[in-house]
Amino acid sequence: MSEVTTAEFNEEGKYLRKIRSFVLREGRLTKGQAQAIESQWPTMGLDYSPIPLNLSDVFGREADTVLEIGFGMGASLVQMAKDAPEQNFIGIEVHKPGVGSCLSDAAIAGVTNLRVYHHDAMEVLEHAIADGSLARVQLFFPDPWHKKRHHKRRIVQAEFAELIRRKLKIGGVFHMATDWEEYSEHMLEVMQAAPGYQNQSSDGTVVPRPDHRPLTKFEARGHRLGHGVWDLMFERIA
Predict the structure, then answer these.
(1) Cβ-defined contacts of 192-195 (< 8 Å, 24+)
(2) Neighbours of 85 (CB within 10 A)
(3) pLDDT tens digit string along 136-184?
(4) 93 labelled ligand-binding
(5) Helix residue spans in 19-150 (DSSP H)
(6) What is the pTM of this model?
(7) Closest CA to 178 of 100, 97, 232, 215
(8) Phi, psi of 112 (to 5 degrees)
(9) What confidence tier does 3 reach under pLDDT thresholds 50, 70, 90?
(10) Residue 120 counted as an annotated binding residue
């Protein structure tokens, strides 16, 4: 699981904008992770700037762009980029060892359609991503903040849903996944109430895991133990 951002929300779920809303989690890098950051950052790294990216300049082409918030160690993101060379991928992660691991895997896989931020997801989304520019936003296994008094810290809130909607193209999809059923119910409640979205589920609840989301080792182990995973996909329609 990845702690996608240290940004917090108030009791009404409103994002608390602070001058410094996050702390980059340095962690202890392995030699391989450090070498990957040094060697791959010039080509795959994105340095944060509050000016919206020109995606065609960043990737050297016009293509649908998928953005993942909190990619953890990056294995599934690299797999997705490798499996869909016709798409562009951007990952955001605050944990530096995860960034190093992702860059290492990407280099080994030979992917050229992936770019990575080591920065706070909220700042990147609000300032560095142009409105209406993304084909898909992915939020996989965010911190569920189990305790009821901590639910306000969950990233999926009304204001966050509206921020994602602005960044998606019409027809773009916000794809969430969690292994906590109660959090999936919270996500569903927030998203059903969010204007401008349509649930892609045939029964108005969750969807089967789509082919584009790889089965993680963590998830496969959970399946063997009888644990569930819930995917939600909401399309921007307005």
Answers:
(1) 193/158, 194/158, 194/161, 194/162, 194/165, 194/234, 195/162, 195/165, 195/238
(2) 11
(3) 999 999 998 878 787 888 999 999 999 999 999 999 999 999 999 999 9
(4) yes
(5) 31-44, 55-59, 75-83, 96-109, 121-123
(6) 0.89
(7) 232
(8) -120, 0
(9) very low
(10) yes
Count of other CB atoms within 10 angstroms of residue 7:
18
30 labeled binding residue: no
Residues found in the chain: 238
Does 179 show up as a binding residue in the annotation? Answer: yes
Round to whole Å and give the CA distance between 166 and 134.
9
> What backbone phi and psi angles, to 5 degrees, belong to 124?
-60, -50
Tell me: is residue 211 an annotated ligand-binding position.
no
- Residue type at 16? L
Q: In what order do the strands lie in the sheet with 45-46?
A: 45-46, 114-117, 88-92, 65-69, 134-140, 168-178, 230-236, 197-199
Instruction: Write out the catalytic residue numbers.
Output: 143
Residue 31 has, within 13 A of its CA and on its CB side, a CA count of 0
Angle at 11 between CA 8 and CA 16, to 5 degrees: 35
Please state, in angstroms and rounded to a whole number, the distance separating the CA atoms of residues 120 and 235: 24
Q: What's the CA gap between 34 and 122, in Å, rounded?
A: 25
Per-residue pLDDT tens over the stretch 30-73: 999 999 999 999 999 999 999 999 999 999 999 999 999 999 99
Residue 96 labelled as part of a binding site:
no
Residue 110 identity (one-letter amino acid): G
